[in-house]
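Journal club prep — side note

Before the paper discussion, L.F. wants everyone to see what a predicted structure for a comparable chain looks like in token form. Sequence:
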Amino acid sequence: MSVDTRPQQVGSFGRARRSFREWRWQRPFWGGLWTLLSGIPIMYIPYQTMTLGDLHIRMSTTAGAGSLIIGVLLVVLGLTLWFQQQSRIFAGVAAILLALVSLVVSNFGAFLIGFLLALVGGALGVSWAPGRPVAASGAKAPAAAVSLSKERDGGDRDE
């Protein structure tokens, strides 16, 4: 028995890492993460007070409540992308629409940071598709595709 064929001892960190990797591959993880992270600047920046020396600048607008609602909804949509893969298209489209609304409501989408994160996260959520399980070795190969193109099939023939 060589060194390569012996079963290797896997520690608790290795098992946790492997199980996290399997969990991550079964859902639109990056789309959910970016959407979740986009809610933070949209919620935080409109309520922030910046201080420059003795000058206090309040970023708060009359639409501060709208910014809070948009930020919370983006965080919820990010969690939805993680835990409800069946509704990934709805959550992705809703995240994109909320990103567009945040441009008007919350200081240009919290200075374009939250806007861009939500836009990319929503697009990743919409475009993600679950993988197919690996076919068993005894299974048949899929049938060859039939081309309907005349150029490939020698379409000059009249049939």
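L.F.'s comment for the group: The two ends are 64 Å apart (CA to CA). Keep this in mind when we get to the figures.
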